[in-house]
Design a protein that fits this description.
D-Maltodextrin-Binding Protein, domain 2, three-stranded antiparallel sheet, 13 helices, about 45% helix, binds 1,1-dimethyl-prolinium
Length: about 270
Amino acid sequence: EAGKAADVVVGSKEFTESVIVGEIATQLLKSAAIEVQYRKQLGGTRFLWQALIAGEIDLYPEYTGTLIEEILGGRLHGKRDPETLRRVLSEQGVRMTEPLGFNNTYALGMTAARADRLGISKISDLRPHPELKFGFSNEFMARADGWPGLRQAYRLPQQEVAGLDHGLAYRGLASGRLDVTDLYTTDAEVDYYSLRVLEDDQGYFPDYRAVFLYRADLAERLPAALAALRRLEGRISEQAMIEMNTEAKLGKVPEREVAAGFLRKRLGIA
Ligand code: PBE
């Protein structure tokens, strides 16, 4: 803790949405006269979780499914109820807010044109097509809720499976180098590239409701910070999040401005 320049250190993962939501928190805390340092795009899920536990950051945006399947997986012993979740989190000195209002789930996607030609509308329709080229974001390749489990659950035969940067996967679909990738359902590219979101007909993916994870000691040290953060509970709809991702990704508006616009329009914070 010693030597921290700011009262609160906010972190985020490497993709646009995480950076925007981290910006929103940062600006909201600043508007409450709290000194904030924003360490954006720190890395992947595991890195952010470790940084939170180590006290290098005080809070970051996370998703319930990611928390349950990937981060806490083994420690929950198959239980997924909110009470168990909060108890196991608090054993780690971590708490979470109520959901912010949107769900950003993984899904498999293809271009609508390719999906139509092959008659594919759901994940199990991929089974008779071993020739399809799959490319998944690097984190998805290795996660507990990612490719290995999905392949097993759906008994998918595809052998040609590449790991790549999430942003590049969309361009791979558009150029025809890839047939199938993992989407994040609030991504701007889903609409932009006219992608078909394949139905998860075996219900493999959980909900990924956005929340903030924060250190329990933050709540004790700076209750005003927590009160400010909690103003975001239930306030970011799926539509609002998709619009913000679109502004940033396709409109090239800096995340900082996108976040400021949200706070001004939806929370009346100038
Ligand atoms: N996501 C979508 C989540 C999981 C699903 C990639 C934004 C994440 O864990 O970062």
